[in-house]
């Protein structure tokens, strides 16, 4: 029995593919997910959600308010012009913009409703929820924090009660001034513990923040469905096309590639044929996936058909090039099989196939751009969620990048094909 | 696409003024430091069936790989139907068919689908191809199984389709690289019959094998290759006639150690040893055998078996190289 155990262990440790699947793949995935879920590194710096802020008031109070927001652990403030900020949301670069409208300072001092507005992409509702959770308590506490805003609570309370009696107004004002000192002291103490979420929210101002969706499902598509279909389809397509690419190595092993070379067909055409068949199968696969989502889950394709077709073609081109590229690296299937699974899973994890990108820290969101998944999923979002037209530059750039990735990978594959795969003897 | 006429192509290319269908001159090939072909020369006439005979690793497959444009030679020249292999590769590919040593078929396609694919690669028109594929399936006794996937075929059936796939474009020259390895006698006989039929149809054939029976049965001429060199060439009769050896006495000893071998060497110096069998080359076994048995008895050498072989390709090869063809 011991001999069988030893033999099996020897076989296992001698099998590089098994070793890769047993150790390397999980290690890489654990690392990626640890980064993605923010479980790596000291503190929470890497987990900050980026919030664009557009300051249209441009007063001492508004700047002070921005400073207060910037001190939040969970949010990283980026000051931007409103137009740039809105474009960034439309292109998916940012989830939201907090607009401090003109009159913020006056409203604050007068105890009026603060002219604050959060414009956002509905697609990123989880991210927006997190932003709201951080913003509302802070906005509520602004009157207690900002210099020169000592009496505004009283003024606000007076307005809220709607009383016209001067004596009552004065009484409310006096009591709130006393209360103000107590609350300010409490804030000072709690701010030392850096735990903003324990700050009391009195609902004076936070509830007044206007929420505006600047991207919403005009065609009735659900964002989760788009994410699920696009993310899964692209990841599974990568597995399929790598299988097709590895078919080249099978042909080499089984002698059919050699037989093709005996014929008058040019070696380059053998690879071209493989690339074309991979493209056709990829297009077919994506079409079936999206039509399944239409039939089974009601994905609205209708008017998005041209954009969907373009995205499917571009994705298929990039993914099939990736499949042939991976295969051309090796001389034998065994050399690349395990590694290809590792690469696809890693690309899918960072590219947004396995989870929405906003879950990930900023550096990983930037890293996502190296994956085919990212550009493809974003293009599908453009079509099914952001409702961009096929002539929209943002959409076209993503499509162009997919074709560019495909072109580069195909070129490298041709060179490696000659070097690795055509060496038959 | 219309069928490409290689005849037109051939006429439009500068011809080499030779009469042979295949002419190989001083062909050399090395892999790293290992010299696999050391300057081989041979020529084959139209309609001739030429056997390239040698043990594994002798250089047969490398020679075929060069002749079928899979490999480039380091030096030397090859002319096929007066075309230079180096410059007129595609024209040559159109008139040659190659049956590789391995079964190079798509296992998940049916036999008919495989044939239609491999013929299509040579741009054979669809109707003509379909007719030819069915003819070949009939010829190889596989018409009833033509719609079965190749993966469900026996080894012998796969070998037959492997050959058929090289005949669809009606090649003038056929390279058969050990086409009967590992098959049943029935399939082997069928393949022999097909090869003999092709030979009668005046197709020029190069046939590599390490089975002497195949070479003797099929080939007009035989080139014996060993260590990258052609060490003898001719018809079977010529090879026999030119061989100094007419018969071989092969004695299997129960224990063949160095001392025993030295004793035998003292009796005859030109003996050859393969495992525990000692081969004595002679022109007259009848006279030689009693002397040999008497010597063994006197020297205390125990033997289990004695065999007298008439001269054949195997004995010629053994005499030339000291090795057996199936080494």
Query: Main beta sheet of chain A: strand number and arrangement?
Result: 5 strands, mixed
Instruction: State Rg of chain B.
Output: 23 Å
Number of helices of chain B: 12
Helix content of chain B: 25-40%
CATH architectural name of the largest domain in chain B: 3-Layer(aba) Sandwich
Report the strand count of chain B: 14
CATH class of the largest domain in chain B: Alpha Beta
Total strand segments of chain A: 5
| Count of discrete domains of chain A | 2
Write up this protein:
With 425 residues, chain A is an alpha/beta fold. Chain A has two domains: 45-215, abc type-2 transporter like fold; 223-421, no CATH class. Chain A contains 16 helices and five strands. Chain A has helices spanning 2-14, 16-36, 60-70, 82-90, 104-110, 125-145, 152-161, 166-192, 223-254, 256-262, 267-297, 305-328, 333-351, 362-367, 372-384, 393-421; strands spanning 49-55, 75-79, 96-100, 116-121, 210-215. Chain A has a five-stranded mixed beta sheet with strand order 2-1-3-4-5, with helices on both faces. Chain A is elongated, with a radius of gyration of 29 Å. With 327 residues, chain B is an alpha/beta fold. Helices cover 37% and strands 26% of the residues of chain B. Chain B is built from twelve helices and 14 strands. A six-stranded mixed beta sheet of chain B has the order 6-7-8-3-9-10, with helices on both faces. The longest helix of chain B is centred in the middle third of the chain and has 16 residues, at 185-200. Chain B is elongated. The chains are: A alpha/beta (425), B alpha/beta (327). Chain A binds chain B through residues 254-256, 258-265, 424-425, and chain B through 4, 31, 62, 65, 68-71, 90, 93-94, 96, 98, 100, 102-107, 118, 121-122, 165.
């Amino acid at each position: 029995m011991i001999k069988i155990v030893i033999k099996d262990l020897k076989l296992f440790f001698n099998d590089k593919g098994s070793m890769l699947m047993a150790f390397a793949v999980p290690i890489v995935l654990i690392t990626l997910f640890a980064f993605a879920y923010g479980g790596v590194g000291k503190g929470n710096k890497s987990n900050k959600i980026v919030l664009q802020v557009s300051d249209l008031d441009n007063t001492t109070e508004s700047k002070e308010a921005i400073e207060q927001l910037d001190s939040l652990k969970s949010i990283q403030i980026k000051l931007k012009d409103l137009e740039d900020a809105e474009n960034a949301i439309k292109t998916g670069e940012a989830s939201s913009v907090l607009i401090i409208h003109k009159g913020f300072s006056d409203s604050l001092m007068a105890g009026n409703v603060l002219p604050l507005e959060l414009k956002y992409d509905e697609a990123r509702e989880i991210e927006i929820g997190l932003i709201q959770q951080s913003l509302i308590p802070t906005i509520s506490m602004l009157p207690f924090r900002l210099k020169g805003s000592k009496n505004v609570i009283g003024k606000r309370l007076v307005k809220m009660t709607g009383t016209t009696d001067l004596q009552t107004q004065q009484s409310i004002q006096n009591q709130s001034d006393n209360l103000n000192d107590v609350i300010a002291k409490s804030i000072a103490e709690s701010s030392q513990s850096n735990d903003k979420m324990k700050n009391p929210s009195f609902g004076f101002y936070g509830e007044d923040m206007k929420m505006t969706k600047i991207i919403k499902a005009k065609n009735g598509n659900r964002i989760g469905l788009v994410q699920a279909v696009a993310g899964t389809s692209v990841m599974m397509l990568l597995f399929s096309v790598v299988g097709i690419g590895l078919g080249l190595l099978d042909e080499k092993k089984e002698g059919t590639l050699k037989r093709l070379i005996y014929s008058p067909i040019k070696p380059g055409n053998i690879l071209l044929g493989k690339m074309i068949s991979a493209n056709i199968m990829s297009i077919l696969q994506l079409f079936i996936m999206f039509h399944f989502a239409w039939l089974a889950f009601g994905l609205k394709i209708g008017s998005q058909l041209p954009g969907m077709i373009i995205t499917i073609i571009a994705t298929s081109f990039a993914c099939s090039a990736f499949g042939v590229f991976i295969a051309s690296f090796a001389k034998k299937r065994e050399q690349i099989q395990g590694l290809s699974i590792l690469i696809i899973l890693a690309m899918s994890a960072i590219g947004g196939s396995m989870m929405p990108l906003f879950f990930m820290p900023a550096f990983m969101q930037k890293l996502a751009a190296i994956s085919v998944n990212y550009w493809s999923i974003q293009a599908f979002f453009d079509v099914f969620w952001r409702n961009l037209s096929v002539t929209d530059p943002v959409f076209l750039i993503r499509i162009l990048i997919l074709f560019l990735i495909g072109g580069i990978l195909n070129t490298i594959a041709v060179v490696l094909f000659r070097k690795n795969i055509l060496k038959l003897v | 696409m219309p069928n490409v006429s290689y005849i037109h192509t051939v006429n439009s290319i500068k011809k080499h003024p030779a009469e042979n269908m295949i002419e190989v001159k001083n062909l050399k090939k090395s892999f790293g430091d290992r010299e696999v072909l050391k300057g081989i020369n041979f020529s084959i006439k139209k309609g001739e069936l030429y056997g390239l005979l040698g043990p594994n690793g002798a250089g047969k497959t490398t020679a075929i790989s060069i002749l079928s444009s899979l490999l480039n030679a380091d030096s030397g020249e090859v002319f096929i139907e007066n075309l230079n292999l180096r410059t007129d590769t595609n024209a040559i590919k159109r008139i040659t068919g190659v049956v590789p040593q391995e079964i190079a078929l798509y296992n998940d396609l049916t036999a008919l689908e495989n044939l239609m694919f491999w013929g299509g690669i040579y741009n054979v028109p669809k109707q003509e191809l379909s007719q030819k594929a069915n003819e070949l399936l009939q010829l190889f006794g596989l018409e009833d199984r033509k719609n079965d996937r190749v993966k469900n075929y026996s080894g012998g059936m796969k070998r037959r389709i492997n050959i058929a796939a090289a005949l669809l474009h009606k090649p003038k020259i056929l390279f058969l690289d050990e086409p009967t390895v590992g098959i049943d006698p029935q399939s082997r006989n069928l393949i022999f019959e097909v090869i003999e039929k092709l030979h009668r149809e005046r197709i020029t054939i190069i046939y590599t094998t390490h089975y002497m029976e195949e070479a003797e049965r099929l080939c007009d001429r035989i080139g014996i290759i060993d260590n990258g060199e052609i060490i003898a060439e001719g018809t079977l009769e010529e090879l026999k006639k030119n061989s100094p050896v007419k018969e071989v006495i092969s004695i299997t000893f129960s224990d063949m150690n160095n001392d025993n071998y030295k004793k035998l060497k003292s009796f005859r110096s030109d003996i050859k040893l393969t495992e525990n069998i000692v081969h004595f080359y002679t022109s007259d076994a009848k006279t030689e055998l009693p002397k040999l048995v008497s010597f063994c008895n006197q020297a205390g050498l125990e033997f289990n078996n004695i065999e007298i072989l008439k001269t054949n390709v195997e004995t010629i090869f053994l005499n030339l190289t000291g090795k057996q063809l199936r080494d």
